[in-house]
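Forwarding the complex inputs:
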Amino acid sequence: MRIATWNVNSIKARFPTVQEVLQNIDCDVVCLQELKCETDAFPYMELEEAGWNCAVLGQKSYNGVAILSKYPLEDVTKGLSTMKDDQARFIQALVMADRPVRVGGLYLPNGNPAPGPKFDYKLEWMACLLDHARERLKAEEPYILCGDYNTIPTAVDCWDETKWADDALALPETREAFRRIKNLGMADAFEITDGRAHQYTFWDYQGGAFQKDHGIRIDHLLVSPQAADRLQSVEIYRKARSLDKPSDHVPVIGVFED
DNA sequence: ATGGTAGAAGATCTA
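Prediction (whole assembly, two chains):
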């Protein structure tokens, strides 16, 4: 089974590109972030015609997450139960493959500028995600928590650590909160397979960042032990960043034994 | 040199 996460930076502005990339990456499940549309405005019809089952949590202008699946989706939940806000940043579903897999799709707050209320919100959100993951792990089932974590885990996950020293994506508190989730037993799928330094999933639109490979690795798949046991490889689909009118993020794909 | 890019909304905000 191939499971992808991709921040599309507006599903409407990107829809032809999204359809093309979805065909090319040949996945069974795709978590999308930054839909930037309301739930009712999601292009259900076109995607269902292409064979996708869709679970969607949208909102006006900002955020928005979805899970697309070639298999039926059951037990869909929206939002983190302990996070009392109205931002569309979390969705989860049980993917009914022959061996079912539970998948959570998340869009973690950016948190800039830091310090400040936005950074406080980011850390609060990460604490709620930690609680959620701890509860989910009790089920001892294959569980994959994927999305745009807005977290650069270590110095080798960005092109120039000094440029990110004061950024909410790299501050020690952010990295510590991310490690806490891993320390529960949710492994970083990229780290335990490929693991190379300086492999990126996001390049800023400004200053020719992609051409210079000035990127950061902030899109991650965290996997429970039962999912890690079936993990074979991780692919970063860099080609998506060189298309016309690209998202600033590219898909990250986890390949699992069926 | 306090810029630069992109999207959605709408005469800014978020990233």
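Residues 117-137 of chain A form the longest helix (21 residues).
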